[in-house]
Amino acid sequence: MMTTTQTQAAAQLPIENPGEAYKRRKTTRGNFELYSWVFMRASGVVLLVLIFVHLFVNLVAGEGITAIDFGFVAGKWASPFWQVIDLVMLWLAMLHGTNGMRTIVNDYAERDGLRMWLKIALYTAFVVVTVLGTLVIFTFDPCPADAPANLLPSFCTA
């Protein structure tokens, strides 16, 4: 047990911060990290609902996995409702995943240059996948002109 004199002497000793070697320059980000944290929780809940609806519609309802083919996807995406649902799922999944990876990069990349290049690669991948996925959802032609009639959905006039 420490005496009062020992406690006072210990309180006067300078305490070395072991994290000084890893100290980064401070930036003011306002409430961005708080909003990012709240977004991760909210988007996670919404994604769970969307994913289970997606799995139920695609695998449980109807004939199961054997029914998933070009005609199934074409019939589903012929409806603007399913286009929007899949688009929201794509955007939320990409934003959620990118935000999570951004947090990991910030936590584990110690050098500023490495952190910058990792974030550039991350944001580039985010933009490419999100833009291409959005284009596929909205430019998908369920009734292509050169497709065999047996592969086309029933609503196509071939």
Number of strands: 0
CATH third-level topology: 3 helical TM bundles of succinate and fumarate reductases
Please give the oligomerization state of what you see.
single chain
CATH superfamily: Fumarate reductase/succinate dehydrogenase, transmembrane subunit
- How much of the sequence lies in strands comes to under 5%
When the domains are counted, the total is: 1
Briefly note the structural class of the backbone.
Answer: mainly alpha
Radius of gyration: 26 Å
Average of pLDDT: 84
Helix content: 55-70%
Largest sheet: none
User: pLDDT under 50 segments (min length 5)?
Assistant: none
How many angstroms does the end-to-end distance come to? 90 Å
The CATH class is: Mainly Alpha
Count of runs of 4 or more consecutive helical residues: 5
Shape: elongated
Q: From the 3D coordinates, which CATH architecture would you assign?
A: Up-down Bundle
The string of secondary-structure elements, in order, is HHHHH
Topology of helices and strands:
Elements: H1 4-12, H2 32-60, H3 70-77, H4 80-108, H5 112-139
Helix pairs in contact: 2-4, 4-5
Protein described:
- The structure is a single chain.
- By secondary structure, this protein is mainly α.
- It has one domain: 3 helical TM bundles of succinate and fumarate reductases (Up-down Bundle), CATH 1.20.1300.
- Helices cover 65% and strands 0% of the residues.
- It is built from 5 helices and no strands.
- It has helices spanning 4-12, 32-60, 70-77, 80-108, 112-139.
- The protein starts with a helix and ends in a 19-residue tail after the last helix.
- 1% of the residues are buried.
- The model has no long low-confidence stretch (mean pLDDT 84).
